[in-house]
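Action item from last meeting closed. Structure (303 res):
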């Protein structure tokens, strides 16, 4: 059994090491679930994906996908990286549970610190904007969300509100964006309230395990990051890189996807080539000497 596992692990590494070279992760430590799954494909893939740099929860998610793929195909194929939704336990879409749809391509997606910035970039022609206003003051939050909703009126820009879901619902925002921690912390009825209101929902993800969790909610879009190193926030995971981004896009094909994290105009073409339909930027606009001119340059680079 160990010889078979070692052989399969070596085959996976030989087929995919070049693709995922240079990635850092935390070794996948054995868990009770791993010990209770003696399947040789699972054990080989768990060890290989850990060696390829996937963090523990992603290595385990991938290992189970490898096992299901081999069972579905009736054979182990080291060259075939898992990408079938069923192998990741992703159910077929249920229109009755899905959030309101948004365009497959949201275009340039600007993440902005306050309502004034939202208005500036909406007027500059940025098609999708997000208010990421950080405050613990409920009155200030409500004022900023209401001002941001007003600021995009007549511009055609789609406005997402980061985190502040109740204020976004009250103000009639186009959509809401939440992170994984926010998804876990939402009140029991919050997702249903957002869904039935017709408000769009975007969810941040940082790897396979979070993607599967987010996709089960059937959001309007999924954000994938951080693609490249970023100093804007401390990340629990290493930058994903283009190879992983392409693998994620293949698994989530059909779902609107937004790439985020350290992306500049010089990387737009490579990011688009992965199959991701939209690119989010922060510093490329808010740190630019002339943000309006920068927006036009980024829009041109996105094509």
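Sequence:
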């Amino acid at each position: 059994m160990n010889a078979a596992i070692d052989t399969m692990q070596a085959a996976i590494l030989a087929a995919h090491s070049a693709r995922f070279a240079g990635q850092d992760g935390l070794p996948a430590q054995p868990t009770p679930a791993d010990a209770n799954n003696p399947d040789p494909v699972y054990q080989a893939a768990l060890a290989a994906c850990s060696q390829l740099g996937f963090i523990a929860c992603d290595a385990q998610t991938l290992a189970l996908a490898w096992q299901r793929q081999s069972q579905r195909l009736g054979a182990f194929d080291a060259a075939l990286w898992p990408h079938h939704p069923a192998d990741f336990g992703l159910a077929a879409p249920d229109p009755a549970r899905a959030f309101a749809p948004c365009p497959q391509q949201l275009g340039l997606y600007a993440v902005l610190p306050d309502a004034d910035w939202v208005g500036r970039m909406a007027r500059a022609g940025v098609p999708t904007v997000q208010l990421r206003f950080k405050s613990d003051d409920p009155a200030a939050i409500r004022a900023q969300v209401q001002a941001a909703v007003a600021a995009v009126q007549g511009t055609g820009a789609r406005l997402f509100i980061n985190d502040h879901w109740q204020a976004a619902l009250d103000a009639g925002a186009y959509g809401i964006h939440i992170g994984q921690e926010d998804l876990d912390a939402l009140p029991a009825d919050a997702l249903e309230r957002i869904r039935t209101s017709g408000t769009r929902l975007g969810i941040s993800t940082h790897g396979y395990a979070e993607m599967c969790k987010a996709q089960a909610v059937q959001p309007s879009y999924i954000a994938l990051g951080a693609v490249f190193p970023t100093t804007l926030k401390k990340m629990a995971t290493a930058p994903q890189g283009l190879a992983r981004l392409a693998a994620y896009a293949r698994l989530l094909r059909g779902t609107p996807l937004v790439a985020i994290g350290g992306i500049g105009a010089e990387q737009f073409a490579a990011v688009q080539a992965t199959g991701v339909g939209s690119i989010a930027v922060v510093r490329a606009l808010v740190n630019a000497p002339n943000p309006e001119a920068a927006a036009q340059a980024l829009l041109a680079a996105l094509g």
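Note appended to the action item: Residues 2-86 form one domain.
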